[in-house]
Specification:
mainly beta, two-stranded antiparallel sheet, flat, 0% helix
């Protein structure tokens, strides 16, 4: 299935485009707001250091 969003078209079963901006509507303290997030593809097995201990994300 093809999807089209802000001039970009992609297949529905593919990963999101890196750097794609997403506007998420929501409310904050009774005020309607729009949160803008940038999509980054999930990178599995990315090393993460927390309090001196290395973890593998994913």
């Amino acid at each position: 299935m093809k999807l089209s969003y802000r001039g970009h078209s992609y297949e529905a079963n593919t990963n999101p485009v890196a750097g794609q901006d997403i506007a998420v509507p929501g409310t904050y303290r009774g005020t309607k707001t729009t949160l803008h997030m940038t999509r980054v593809p999930v990178q599995h097995q990315t090393p993460l250091t927390y309090r001196g201990v290395r973890h593998l994300g994913g």
